[in-house]
Automatic annotation (TrEMBL):
Major place of residence: membrane
Membrane-crossing residue ranges in chain numbering: 6-31, 43-61
The protein's name: Oidioi.mRNA.OKI2018_I69.PAR.g10482.t1.cds
UniProt source species: Oikopleura dioica (Tunicate)
Keyword Membrane belongs to the record: yes
Domain of life: Eukaryota
Compartments (UniProt record): Membrane
Membrane topology classification: Multi-pass membrane protein
Keywords from the UniProt entry: Membrane, Transmembrane, Transmembrane helix
């Protein structure tokens, strides 16, 4: 699959802008949320956060999806929520509930199962090489 990575990210940004700005205006006009412009230091934090989360993380996710499969990429994203919640609870000294542990374990088991069924080293090497050439 040939994909133009900069164009892909451009369209993701364009669709996000077009789909979410109207909702922000509606929330502001109804009084549910109030919209104010960020201060200068908040702009700096927002730009750094956007660079790290939106660009680097999404680029790594796209690379992993191209190197493996879109299903593995989606399941890897599904591991973020239980992983961050579990680490947060551990750092704060809070116990993990049995429901949470069972759900996280099922998510992890499904990810490992999909990874074991989607192995093809030749395809993976070709996809990664094509992606690296696209970035150059």
């Amino acid at each position: 699959m040939d994909i133009d990575v900069p164009m892909f990210f451009g369209f993701v940004g364009l669709f996000t802008l077009l789909m979410f700005w109207p909702g922000l205006v509606v929330l502001h006009l109804t009084g549910i949320e109030s919209f104010t412009l960020p201060s200068k230091i908040e702009w700096i934090y927002l730009c750094i956060s956007a660079l790290v989360t939106a660009v680097i993380c999404q680029l790594l996710w796209l690379w992993a999806s191209l190197a493996t499969s879109p299903l593995q990429g989606i399941l890897a994203l599904a591991l973020i929520v239980p992983g961050s919640k579990g680490i947060s609870n551990i750092l704060e000294g809070q116990p993990l509930s049995l429901k949470f542990a069972a759900g996280a374990a099922l998510t992890l088991i499904s990810y490992i199962g999909v990874c074991n069924t989607n192995r093809s080293p030749r395809q993976t090497a070709a996809k990664v090489e094509a992606f690296e050439l696209e970035l150059r």
